[in-house]
Amino acid sequence: xxxxxxxxxxxxxxxxxxxxxxxxxxxxxxxxxxxxxxxxxxxxxxxxxxxxxxxxxxxxxxxxxxxxxxxxxxxxxxxxxxxxxxxxxxxxxxxxxxxxxxxxxxxxxxxxxxxxxxxxxxxxxxxxxxxxxxxxxxxxxxxxxxxxxxxxxxxxxxxxxxxxxxxxxxxxxxxxxxxxxxxxxxxxxxxxxxxxxxxxxxxxxxxxxxxxxxxxxxxxxxxxxxxxxxxxxxxxxxxxxxxxxxxxxxxxxxxxxxxxxxxxxxxxxxxxxxxxxxxxxxxxxxxxxxxxxxxxxxxxxxxxxxxxxxxxxxxxxxxxxxxxxxxxxxxxxxxxxxxxxxxxxxxxxxxxxxxxxxxxxxxxxxxxxxxxxxxxxxxxxxxxxxxxxxxxxxxxxxxxxxxxxxxxxxxxxxxxxxxxxxxxxxxxxxxxxxxxxxxxxxxxxxxxxxxxxxxxxxxxxxxxxxxxxxxxxxxxxxxxxxxxxxxxxxxxxxxxxxxxxxxxxxxxxxxxxxxxxxxxxxxxxxxxxxxxxxxxxxxxxxxxxxxxxxxxxxxxxxxxxxxxxxxxxxxxxxxxxxxxxxxxxxxxxx
Length: 590
What we know:
This protein is α/β, with parallel strands linked by helices and 590 residues long. The chain starts with 7 loop residues before the first helix and ends with a helix. Strands 6-7-8-3-9-10 form a six-stranded mixed sheet. Strands 2-1-4-5 form a four-stranded antiparallel sheet, with no helix packed on it. The mean pLDDT is 82. The protein folds into three domains: 312 residues, ABC transporter transmembrane region fold, CATH 1.20.1560.10; 173 residues, P-loop containing nucleotide triphosphate hydrolases (Rossmann fold, 3-Layer(aba) Sandwich), CATH 3.40.50.300; 81 residues, Rossmann fold.
């Protein structure tokens, strides 16, 4: 339950609207509390000769009370329930924005489906507690307090007898409450698993269809769904016991009033109108007693959901600015010289080092080519530059500044990365390319349309775009499914080129294009590479042979280093790769 105290800052933000809402609740309850007294007086009047105008008078008062009570009840929903929706929006915004700044290791540990469950189901549970939970809590307390006050003033003895069954409701709620929390947690976990499975299937539907695994995946999902259903039914069964018992006990209270109240009417100590008032008031107490149990259930669902949300919101980014960060460094100060000093790296929870004792200097405006067999740490090496991961040992410098002292946003805005597996959004080609530059910066670029064309030409994409019906306005499918693998990569290259970063990193980003297209893109990139430091990873020597310096990674270490000609003269690993690729090209031509 402690997790719900985390909602105080959100409630404080809307305290004025909540206070107004509470005032509306109070007015509505007072008006509804007067209504049974009017009915009681009317019944007493009917016991003696009465005129039509008196009946009309009581009917009119009843209608006015019910009408205004309903109006103020509407106002309470327009304040308190609306506040719950606004807090829901704030929670979702804070949750999503916090996720943007968490390190990649967090996403390695948490599935997309699990995170989606937090963003939907958990936040909705908290919203239900904030809206109906708070509204009915206030209504229950005020209505119960005011009703008991009136009943004790009418007849303390009958009130005491009528209330005997009601404490049992609290006991039932207490017993139900003890089991609801744990079962609610199990429901949330099962929902996360089901969401993760669905998301994974939708993302991998092409693989599923390729291997004809539809039936297998359907059965697996059905098993997970049935488990979720069982846990939900278990929770529902537990909650279902409380509501019938509450109706039974409140109904018993009314029976007690009819019996003992009737005896008092016969004795003349109570009027028929008083008995009517008691019955109506006990009827009004039925909902608060039921609402009390429902509020407890809402609270029991909200508490684990809020705890799960806070566990993520309290997760600190492993890579972030700290006290040693030099805030005075701006993007203008980044020139592009990179230096690795005795850098070693291993992933969390792994004993083996991926990179070992890397010493390397890439001068401003020069290019570095990286080659090596799969799994030797090529991508890991370039991911250390923008601090996607932090090094374990050694230091990395850019223009003489330790990268840990450069503000993270400055560092990453100065580095343009094109990964091997390019991610494209379900948007236009134009917006996918412009994504690298914030919209407010585009406004200052009066010729950004020309730069868009130029970037696509450099990436070898422009000819393809011209063939699309809507050119740059062509909408891509999910993850850019309407483009080929090579077109995706060239779109990602255009995106990075449009940014005009001080450091450009290409992580085997031409692997999906043919050799002639590769040559076209490399020629286009030559002008771009003159103005900035470039790091290129490739399995093809043809991609990196013109770089100023080339390194061969082997077992996480730099085994060979030099220009293309120098490495061929060594007749080492680079030479063997070169001969193998020459042979493959000859076989393809023949």
